[in-house]
Amino acid sequence: MVRHSPLALAVLAMLTEGPLHPYRMQQLIKARGKDEVINVGQRNSLYQTIDRLLRGDLIAVRETERDGAFPERTIYEITEAGRDTGRLWLREQLAQPGREFPAFPAALSFLPLLTPDDVRRQLETRAGALERELARQDAMTAEANAIQVPRLFLLEGELVRAQLVVQLEWVRSVVADLQAGTLTWSEAWLADIAQRFSLPADATSYRLAKPTATKEPKA
């Protein structure tokens, strides 16, 4: 069974339109703005994905061509199994939320490694980056609307923008709480929490010690 990935689905989708060589696939993904949601920056990743699909009989070699002084290019085409698998992957991705592990939530889980002021500064920087990305997304949408691109081909951009708006609002709220001191921590407070939530070597879940009057430290 071939492992699913956004890039693998993109390759199958491109080949559904007709036979292509890898460089043309990469060009089309970028030209259509799909590189906003699919990581196709590394050519090697594309070739590795094509190899997996080829070994899984989801695509096949159509022919090899030579264009003047350029190296030979292998042209691929989709198989019937590839068409069926592509539709299956798409249905699954649309219907079932997957367990994803993005870097930002992981970073948030280790905030105590930094001081509250340091975290506030980093999140302020992130808020600025999110604002700039929103402006870029809006400019792209305005350009697409100007040439009347159908909404069907802009839906992923709508979702990306909605996620940016929600994240920016949330980051700003956390920054505000850090500034106000309603969200804070100290080494002493963290040490107390570590004692209260201890995990024995043979345990499979946290053990909460008898509650104390310890509260989150005030600024």
Short descriptors:
single chain; 219 residues; mainly alpha; Arc Repressor Mutant, subunit A; 2 domains; two-stranded antiparallel sheet; two-stranded antiparallel ribbon; 8 helices; WH_DNA-bd_sf
CATH architecture call of the largest domain: Orthogonal Bundle
SSE-based structural type: mainly alpha
Q: What is the fold-level CATH name, i.e. the topology of the largest domain? A: Arc Repressor Mutant, subunit A
β-strand number: 4
Low-confidence stretches: 207-214
Number of domains: 2
Q: What is the mean pLDDT? A: 90
Q: How much helix is in the residues?
A: 55-70%
Classified in CATH, the superfamily of the largest domain is Winged helix-like DNA-binding domain superfamily/Winged helix DNA-binding domain
Gross geometry: elongated
- Count of runs of 4 or more consecutive helical residues: 8
Q: Within the largest sheet, what's the order of strands?
A: 1-2
Q: Sketch the major β-sheet.
A: 2 strands, antiparallel
* N-to-C series of helices and strands: HHHEEHHHHHEE
What fraction of the residues are assigned to beta strands by DSSP? Answer: 5-15%
CATH class (first level) name of the largest domain: Mainly Alpha
- How far is the N terminus from the C terminus? 55 Å
Radius of gyration: 24 Å
